[in-house]
UniProtKB/TrEMBL annotation:
GO cellular component: cytoplasm
EC number: 1.1.1.23
Catalytic activity: L-histidinol + 2 NAD(+) + H2O = L-histidine + 2 NADH + 3 H(+)
Binding site for Zn(2+): 250, 253, 345, 404
UniProt xrefs under Pfam families: Histidinol_dh
InterPro entries named in the record: Ald_DH/histidinol_DH, Histidinol_DH_CS, Histidinol_DH_monofunct, Hstdl_DH
UniProt cross-references to NCBIfam families, sorted A to Z: hisD
Name of protein: Histidinol dehydrogenase
Length: 415
């Protein structure tokens, strides 16, 4: 990691803040070809790409049977079962706390307003299966769907690990397909003979998956375009080894991971750099990410450090407790020495599918809100009609929308 004076690094920080999603231009032609092929040729194309890119056997079923899911669950260690049950319970509790409510309010003058909550009818959950198996992503994408009341929940994952299958069994997933990449996204978005299309696709993935989500977004809803992992930490007095441990933990996700530490203390900056080197010594992926995309910024004061961190708008952000109120842009915030970012990845409850590439400036992580529709409701009585009619008719006339005004005037004449 490089140690830089923040006041001398405004150009670099601005460049990092404007990073956006990982450059998709290099893979978009290939991804577009795959998406179009699967949309046109269905299972034949889907199986061809699954065989070529993920090693799916010619006779292997695309859909994982319930028996196979159960066998995976039966074969997992008891410690894993206990941990994943506990994590699922925490994620479910948090999603229930997040769940929006239906309500109705009397706005006066014969006007009643409100909202009703309805689940999306079907969701496809993408679970990566490449460098690392991610059963935790099954929990993070499926549990909120269950809480929201989504009727049909589909999971796709290439070469799913036993633990991934076991997690799906625990949650009662009825449809699980051993497919991944752009071809899986296309199958979920447009449907094939074996895979019925879904209304929305959620979950993280590599640049091919993310680019495919981008290409199908006008035909099938998506959660967000999430790129490589990001982490930032802001601290004046934190434990150097704790800070370094979080930076290394997030860096091991991917060589493209970006991490940054903001501090006012040169001595803490030096200590963190040394601890990072020690903790990453045997972690090849983390070392590569830290060497190319790891930054330590020393600020003049804590206000400057927080301003920079908010500008960076990272996926994960750790801050000292007294800095929480100054956070304005982050996917998920971890407060104090003992709030390891890994807790958010697995067990504490908030979702680990988080915005990257600066998207944290405009949205937070995946939540139960991504699985529901908030539908507004309005009930206008005769009294309400008389109260609102002059406003609506005047504005309709100003916009030149004659029929709009007429629809109100006709009612007013008969109220």
């Amino acid at each position: 990691m490089r140690i830089l004076r923040l006041e001398k690094s405004s150009g670099l920080l601005a460049k990092l803040a404007a990073r956006g999603m990982a450059d998709a231009s290099r893979v978009e032609p290939v991804v577009r070809k795959i998406v179009v092929d699967v949309r046109k040729n269905g299972d034949a194309a889907l199986r061809r790409y699954a065989s070529k890119l993920d090693g799916l056997g010619k006779t292997a079923a695309l859909r994982v049977s319930t028996e196979e899911l159960k066998s995976a669950w039966d074969a997992t260690r008891s410690e894993f079962k206990q941990a994943i049950r506990a994590a699922a319970k925490n994620i479910e509790r948090f999603a229930r706390w997040q769940m929006p409510k239906s309500w109705t309010r009397d706005a006066g003058d014969g006007i009643e307003l409100g909202q009703i909550i309805r689940p999306i009818e079907s969701v496809g959950c993408y679970v990566p299966g490449g460098r690392y198996p991610l059963p935790s992503t099954v929990l993070m994408t499926v549990v909120p769907a269950r809480v929201a009341g989504v009727e049909r929940v589909v999971v796709v994952s290439p070469n799913p690990a036993r633990e991934t299958l076991a997690a799906a069994y625990l949650l009662g997933v009825g449809e699980f397909y051993r497919i991944g990449g752009a071809q899986a996204v296309a199958a979920l978005a447009y449907g094939t003979e074996s895979v019925e299309r879904v209304a929305k696709i959620v979950g993280p993935g590599n640049i091919f998956v993310t680019t495919a989500k981008k290409l199908v977004a006008f035909d099938c809803a998506i959660d967000m375009l999430a790129g490589p992992t990001e982490a930032a930490i802001v601290s004046e007095r934190g434990n150097a080894r704790f800070i370094a441990a979080d930076l290394v933990a997030q860096a091991e996700h991917d060589p493209e991971t970006m991490v940054a530490f903001f501090t006012t203390s040169p001595s803490l900056a030096d200590a963190v750099k040394k601890q990072v080197a020690l903790l990453a010594a045997k972690n090849t992926i983390a070392r590569k990410a830290l060497a190319t995309r790891g930054y330590i910024f020393v600020a003049q004061d804590i206000a400057q450090a927080m301003e920079a961190a908010n500008q960076f708008a990272s996926e994960h952000l750790t801050v000292d407790e007294d800095l929480l109120e100054t956070v304005s842009s982050a996917g998920s915030v971890f407060v104090g020495d003992y709030s390891a970012q890994s807790f958010g990845d697995y067990a504490s409850g908030p979702n680990h599918v988080l915005p990257t590439g600066g998207l944290a400036r405009v949205r937070g992580g995946l939540s139960v809100l991504d699985y529901v529709k908030i539908i507004t409701v309005q009930k206008i009585s005769r009294k309400g009609l008389r109260a609102l009619a002059p406003i609506a008719e005047t504005l309709a006339a100003a916009e030149g929308l004659v029929a709009h005004g007429q629809s109100v005037a006709i009612r007013r004449a008969n109220a």
